[in-house]
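Today's session is about reading a structure prediction critically. Students often jump straight to the picture, but the first step is always the sequence itself: look for stretches that repeat, for charged clusters, for runs of hydrophobic residues. Only then move on to the predicted structure, which in these notes is written as discrete structure tokens rather than atom positions. Here is the chain we will use throughout the hour.
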Amino acid sequence: MARPGPGPDGNGRALTPARPASNVESRALRGVLGRFATGITVLTVGGATPHGMTANAFTSVSLHPPLVLVCVGREAIMHDTILTAGTFAVSVLHGGQEAVARYFSDRRRPRGAAQFDAVGWVPGPITGAPLLVGGLAWVECALEDSHRGGDHSIFVGRVLGTARSDDLDALLFFGGGYHRLVCG
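Below is the predicted structure for this chain, in token form.
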């Protein structure tokens, strides 16, 4: 007879969902997804109506061709701004940029170009979208495709250009709050 091994949680306990996924409440789902640490970025669009927004729904999709994705709420100003511009940039935030993350998630900040007066930035050499000074990495993209994803759109960007710093101090979002991860 085989002896039972440790369960999925490593302590001999079986993990069973509290209820079927179709009945998951938004608050419960937010609590579960909050257990997944993510990096923090600021998405930006340049041009006549520049805009920025904090986002942690960013990931690589493919190296060949070079593609990334960002998820943006369909009600967010950034949603239609990306569709209109056809380009966007992503600034990956440094561990010391929590104030920048909070600023670009605050709906009370100024609109248009004035919202960038409070932060250091340079225009992206390819798209002209603001790239935030002091970040860990920067990606400029052309909008390749978009897909409906519930109350969000999934924007797939073809990477046009990149840059990175040598710093390893990252800003993360975990458990409903910002945290620093210092490596090296």
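Discussion point for the tutorial: Residues 43-182 form a domain with the Pnp Oxidase; Chain A fold (CATH 2.30.110.10).
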